[in-house]
Design goal:
The protein is α+β, with helices and mostly antiparallel strands and 484 residues long. Among the domains are: 151 residues, Adenine-n6-DNA-methyltransferase TaqI, Chain A, domain 2, CATH 3.90.220; 133 residues, DNA methylase specificity domains (Adenine-n6-DNA-methyltransferase TaqI, Chain A, domain 2). Helix content is 38%, strand content 18%. The chain is built from 13 helices and 23 strands. Strands 4-10-7-8 form a four-stranded antiparallel β-sheet. Helix 1 runs antiparallel to helix 6 and helix 1 runs parallel beside helix 12. The longest helix has 41 residues. It is globular and about 75 Å long. It starts with a helix and ends with a helix.
């Protein structure tokens, strides 16, 4: 990574708070200046809200057929999917008010034309129709023209009445989520239909207030997304270096051919051999040895009973760990959980041991407790920490764990089997150099995780008052100062 890129990455988190503060003060000026926007409160299905908000059923503030379910199963089958074509959004692609672009099914141009009534437009909001019925995501310009599946519902508001970005955040209010879960039908698998969703009441302020509130919330979400994208870049750099050094053996091949290894100084290059040698299990770099993951990794099995859990602890469950990311994006609270939990320390590596969650591997950004469905892993020697993290995070280990997992209802892998994962172990000095090289990346990732959480807390704190137009400048400044 070049020096300039390091500076850019390092400035990301530091600049976020300053940008948010500046834009926040500009945005809240509307509420401060608009002294006529005051009201008493009324009881609603979402709790108390200002009495001068307008009220309407969702269907009345949407275009004709604006609340619509996706195509029935008879209209679209899995065998209709193609490798290249128009993406289809399913429930699995509804992220934090944004569309997840991974593993998207696609259909041909012919099927896209046939299903044209199910095409999405910028500003649409897609709901989960079954299961987690409180999940929703806003369609942005890059998803314009995509389709949505029969497991989803689409909401298309009239933009002259309701700003779609504002409405998507209204749907994100905890009170709205509780309400929509309560009116869903079905005990084992809650579901929504167009009638249920069309009849939900919406309370909204004037359009200019909606737009200003939405802009601030979108800006906060953009900054959170930027921090997470930065972490993905840092992870990719650490992975690429690991693959080059310990999988493809690029420096060794270079020295064998009489070339200087690229991207490293002479002292680091000297740590690599210039040839390979036969071993009992195959060709290995000279001086390295074949072993198993358990040679350099151990697990921690410290259980905390419920009596030791308290509200100040942070709890991580499988639901909090994102797919294929070493960076945590969310966490919870252990208070009220009935079973004992596994304790972990900052920088421990947490590995989901249930199939299909072997891709859930994260570096702990704090001390806390986690689900017993998670293995708490540590490096036996500090020098091998980076290698341990990358081995646990590798696709090859995920495949290995999948093959060895067992259990009828919920297949899982135990540490004894996982520890037998075969690896080629470099000398301690070289492993230490790798850990030293990626340490600044991991430290920046941890800082970004905490910065993103700070902004998330700020957003969630401001959300109800921004959505209803209640926010006033003195209160907003106090919240901002306390949070940032």
């Amino acid at each position: 990574m070049s020096l300039d890129k390091q500076k850019i990455v390092g400035r990301v988190s530091d600049s976020v708070t300053r940008q948010v503060e500046s834009e926040f003060e500009t945005s809240v000026g509307l509420w401060s200046a608009n002294s006529t926007y005051t009201a008493d409160f009324i009881d609603t299905v979402y709790g108390e809200l200002p009495s001068n908000l307008k009220e309407a059923k969702l269907s009345t503030i949407c275009e004709k057929n604006g609340v619509q379910t996706g195509p029935f199963g008879s209209q679209l089958h899995k065998e209709d999917y193609v490798d290249k074509g128009t993406p289809i959004i399913t429930v699995e692609h509804l992220g934090e008010n944004r569309i997840v672009h991974e593993n998207l099914p696609r259909v041909s141009d012919e099927d896209k034309a046939r299903l044209s009534k199910y095409q999405l437009k910028t500003g649409d909001i897609v709901f989960s129709r079954v299961g987690s019925v409180d999940r929703r995501a806003l369609v942005q310009a890059k998803e314009n023209g995509w389709l949505f599946s029969g497991r989803c519902l689409r909401v298309r508001p009239i933009q002259e009445i309701v700003d779609s970005r504002w409405l998507s955040y209204f749907f994100g209010l905890p009170a709205f989520k509780n309400y929509i879960r309560g009116i869903a039908v079905g005990a084992t698998m809650p579901s929504l239909n167009t009638k249920i969703l069309s009849d939900v009441p919406i309370y909204f302020p004037p359009l200019d207030i909606q737009k200003s509130a939405a802009k601030l919330l979108v800006d906060l979400d953009d900054r959170i997304a930027l921090l997470r994208e930065t972490n993905a870049t840092l992870e990719a750099i650490a992975q690429a270096l690991f693959k080059s050094w310990f999988v493809d053996f690029d420096p060794i091949h270079a020295k064998k051919q009489g070339r200087e290894p690229e991207g490293m100084d002479a002292d680091t290059a000297a740590l690599f051999p210039d040839s390979f040698e036969e071993s009992a299990v195959g060709l290995a770099p000279k001086g390295w040895r074949f072993g198993i993951l358990g040679d350099i990794t151990e697990t921690v099995k410290k259980q905390l009973p419920p009596s030791k859990l308290n509200a100040n602890m942070c709890y991580i469950g499988l639901e909090h760990i994102p797919r294929q990311s070493l960076s945590l994006t969310n966490w919870g609270n252990p208070e009220g959980l009935e079973s004992a939990k596994a304790a972990f320390s900052e920088s421990d590596i947490l590995f989901g041991k249930l199939r299909p969650y072997f891709h859930k591997v994260v570096i702990a950004p704090f001390d806390g407790v986690c689900s017993t469905d998670i293995l708490v892993c540590q490096s036996k020697k500090t020098a091998y920490y980076g290698m341990v993290a990358m081995c646990l995070f590798s696709t090859a280990l995920v495949d290995y764990a999948s093959r060895l997992s067992n259990g009828a209802k919920m297949p899982r892998i135990n540490w004894k089997d996982l520890a037998e994962y075969p690896i080629c172990i470099p000398p301690e000095a070289l492993a230490a150099e790798y850990s030293k090289t990626i340490k600044p990346l991991f430290e920046r990732m941890a800082a970004n995780v905490h910065q993103a959480q700070t902004l998330t807390t700020l957003r969630d704190t401001l959300l109800p008052r921004l959505i209803s137009g209640q926010l006033r400048l003195p209160d907003a400044e106090a919240m901002l100062e306390e949070t940032t």
